[in-house]
Write a structure and sequence with these properties.
about 350 residues, alpha/beta, Rossmann fold, 2 domains, six-stranded parallel beta sheet, 12 strands, about 40% helix, glycosyltransferase activity, lipopolysaccharide heptosyltransferase II, LPS_LOS_Heptosyltrfase
Length: about 350
Amino acid sequence: MSRRQPPAAQRILVRGVNWLGDAVMTTPALQAVRETWPNAEIFLLANPLVSQLLLNHPALDRVITFDRSGSHKGLFGRLRLAADLRRERFDLALILPNSFDSALVPFLAGIPQRLGKASDGRSLLLTGRYREPLQEPPIHEVQYYCNLLAHFGITGPARDPFLAVTPQEEAEAAAFLTEQGIGPETPLLGINAGATFGSAKRWYPERFAEVARQLAGEWGARTVLFGGPGEQDIVRVIDGELAGNCLNLAGKTSVRRLMALIKRCSFVVTNDSGPMHIAAAFGVPLVAIFGPTDHTGTAPCSERAVIVRHDVECAPCKLRHCPTDHRCMTAISADEVVAAARALRQSLDKEMS
């Protein structure tokens, strides 16, 4: 069967996905776009957080930010965005999300070629349609995005997700840590107790604190607590359990600063979340705690990562909030996570020796 030829294009708009973790998992697909059209101008249309995440990514020439809670809110906001995009004269739109809205704006912008998945009643808005086959067993999200583009002849070699920070951003993160009394040789243990999707994905702050207490003590590391603006109360519990013997950055970093700080970490312990995928993309060793989500689809793509999870009859339920007793998370003990971290660290140390 002959390989499908990609459409001709010189100015390409990629409509990005909406969650940080999902955006990290699209980066192999973005690189396939770059390799298919090495001389084209490739733009990403994304929300403010994802725009920050993929700023300066080598697969992209420019990032266009849309704000559905601000200037692009509602129908008139979408029309304003479409008018702005129309002036850019794109040849092709690659639509990675499955929502109706994500296909509507490129349609209103008059982009002549609009490729995406046939879903959510939006087929008439597309000029090229991908119908996902039933997968047994289910595939990882990274592979899904690559399959979506490959249907249209947009391919590249298999690769793991990849992110980029600039040397200036790394230097600024190092200077910030120095201001906090953390020198360049000090190991950092990152703790990410949040998960924006919902409370069901969150392990317990007291248990995160116990893990941090044991591992930081053993490894001579400083503990850094990460979290978004809506997760400060959770992180405050860990801070209290550690008696302030940590650096609490919850709600205090931009996405770009978060990326640089995670890259600086020696090890990360995290829920299934955007920061988990960021750490994996930078090759930071990590332990990821999974409960209601399906690890076959969203596991960290890294040989330096291990997952801690329990098989319970109601998981993966993929719910935002647990309607019962949260047994998928209560079953995971702090000692179990500590043991997983030690085992991974020992394995990596053996590889280095």
